[in-house]
Design a protein that fits this description.
The protein has 123 residues and is mostly helical. The protein contains one helix and no strands. The protein is 98% helix and 0% strand. The chain starts with a helix and ends with a helix.
Length: 123
């Protein structure tokens, strides 16, 4: 009977050791779980910060695209104005050239008539 009691005591001691070990493992796992939750919270915060930065970058990109569009429109307007001015200048130069040609034709005609008149008076 004493042998049985010793055996039961040994089994009980072994069982107590196993329960103690399981308890230690549980405590360690809870600590790891707490640490993982802290890391997860930190990662969520980092992701949130990255999303905010990404949103800011998208807003800046949209603003830059709008500025580019505005600059392109301004350039198109300037080109149109330059083309209009160019055409006006070409028109004025053509008019001046025509006036110049007409003036030279008259001058030549007048010179010929003067030469004829001189020739008539000399004879």
């Amino acid at each position: 009977m004493e042998e049985k009691i010793n055996r039961i005591e040994e089994m009980l001691a072994t069982l107590i050791q196993k329960v103690g070990k399981i308890h230690e493992d549980q405590v360690a796992m809870r600590e790891e779980q707490t640490l993982m939750k802290l890391e997860q919270t930190s990662m969520k915060h980092d992701i949130s910060s990255m999303k905010k930065e990404q949103t800011l970058m998208k807003q800046e990109q949209t603003l830059m695209k709008q500025e580019q569009t505005s600059l392109r429109e301004e350039m198109a307007l300037m080109r149109a104005e330059n083309e209009k001015s160019h055409q006006e200048i070409i028109g004025k130069l053509d008019s001046l050239a025509a006036d110049h040609e007409h003036t030279w034709e008259k001058t030549v005609r007048n010179e010929r008539e003067i030469a004829k008149v001189k020739h008539q008076f000399d004879l």
